[in-house]
Structure formats: structure tokens, C-alpha cells
Design a protein that fits this description.
about 230 residues, alpha/beta, TIM Barrel, 9 helices, 8 strands, about 35% helix, globular
């Protein structure tokens, strides 16, 4: 199907999930060229999400994201902070005090406020980024004292599974973290966005309370990883 048809189907699936409130559809644009990104924006995605700094820079140079907010959704290396802060609307993958400090310092230098999400390693997977759920209160208190940043919510990448229902307990855990920390009053911290759910499990994520989903192959088709080698 076309990108337009795929987006229509995703919107219909989200609506059938009986979600309350608006769900932001972020097109995960990794390994898709500028023309495909522009088409997705024209067909009504709410934002674009890029995983790799170099890809973001190349597509941004071509005006690929014009007309939609751009999020950075991949692991952000500390030496790449200068290339991202102030150039994207939201960094979804803050996973340490050190990274938060670097972002804060860069944003202060630029005279801007950078919006961020805290990434939670909800399943405790060693190979994945993100803080432990038990560390969230500490990093939020730290963020409350950091200038020129604004925490807008939480993000997670649950385990890869053939059965999306296996991730429901992780989504439920994230929803509870989102609610619990939304009740706390920290400066610079606002629980506006709960970003969870991708192509294989976005319906389950929405049912669990996600208000932002990051979808790639269901929009653009399966990625050809052989072409990247």
C-alpha cells in the first residue's frame, strides 16, 4: 500500500483502540530518504523521528522535515549533542544525568529551552539505553535544577517480541510511572507525553495509555538493512 494508505490504516487502528485524547503519530524515518519523509508529512503524520545524527543532518539539509516537528528518537552520543540541541523540537532519549547536563549547557549557550523525554529501560535489558525505573525520581529532581531544558514526559523501547501482548505489562508499568510522576511538582518537569509503541505493538501501547507512538515500517514499508552495509 502507499504511504497515504498506510497512515490512514494506522489512524483507524488507533481509533479502534478506544484511545482517549489525541495520539501523536511520529513517523520513524530511519533509512527512508527525504522524498519519503516529505510524503509522510504531506499525508498527515504529526512529527518525524530520526534515530541517527548523520541521517538527520543529511535530510535536514534537504528540507525533508519542513512542515512537521522533528524529534530525535535514537541513542544520543555525548559527542553529538552539539549537532542536535536547538535543531530538533524534542529529544526523546535522555538516559543519564551526564547527557542531560550536556544538553542543558548547550541549550544555555544557544539561549533556548530544549524539550526532552526521559527514556526508561523498562525491561532492564543490558543492550538497551535508558535509565532504570527506580532512578526516575532522582533524574527528575536533577532536571528541576538544570537551566534551559524542559522535561515533557517519558519514553520506552520494550523488548522485541512476536506477540505484542507480551509487552502490555511494560506499557502498564510506564503508564503508572507517568501518572505517579505527573502528580509531583518539579520545576522544568511536565508529564505531557508518554511515548511508547512501535509498528508491532502500537495498538497495545495506545490501549495502555500512550499518547505518542513511533512508527516506521508500518508507514514506509520494511527497511532494507542490506542496503546500509
Amino acid at each position: 500500500m502507499s504511504i497515504k494508505q498506510n497512515i490512514k490504516m494506522i489512524r483507524e487502528n488507533i481509533a479502534r483502540a478506544e484511545a482517549s485524547g489525541a495520539i501523536l503519530l511520529v513517523a520513524a524515518t530511519k533509512m527512508n530518504d527525504a522524498d519519503a519523509v516529505k510524503e509522510a508529512i504531506a499525508c498527515g503524520v504529526d512529527a518525524c523521528g530520526e534515530n541517527r545524527v548523520q541521517e538527520f543532518l543529511e535530510k535536514n539539509e534537504k528540507g525533508a522535515y519542513s512542515g512537521a516537528p522533528i524529534h530525535f528518537i535514537g541513542h544520543l552520543q555525548r559527542n553529538k549533542v552539539k549537532q542536535i540541541v536547538g535543531k530538533v523540537d524534542l529529544i526523546q532519549s535522555v538516559d543519564s544525568k551526564e547527557l542531560l547536563t550536556l544538553i542543558s549547557n548547550r541549550a544555555k549557550m544557544l539561549g533556548i529551552t530544549q524539550d526532552l523525554l526521559i527514556e526508561i529501560n523498562v525491561a532492564g535489558e543490558e543492550q538497551k539505553s535508558g535509565i532504570a525505573a527506580s532512578e526516575l525520581s532522582e533524574i527528575l529532581r536533577y532536571a528541576a535544577e538544570a537551566p534551559n531544558i524542559r522535561i515533557r514526559g517519558l519514553m520506552c523501547v520494550p523488548p522485541v517480541t512476536r506477540n505484542a501482548e507480551e509487552n502490555i505489562p511494560y506499557f502498564d508499568q510506564m503508564r503508572q510511572l507517568f501518572i505517579d510522576n505527573g502528580d509531583k511538582k518539579y520545576d522544568n518537569v511536565f508529564m505531557d507525553f508518554l511515548s511508547m509503541g512501535m509498528t508491532g505493538d502500537y495498538v497495545e501501547a495506545v490501549k495502555a495509555g500512550a499518547n505518542m507512538v513511533r512508527i516506521g515500517s508500518a508507514i514506509f514499508g520494511e527497511r532494507d538493512y542490506s542496503a546500509a552495509n
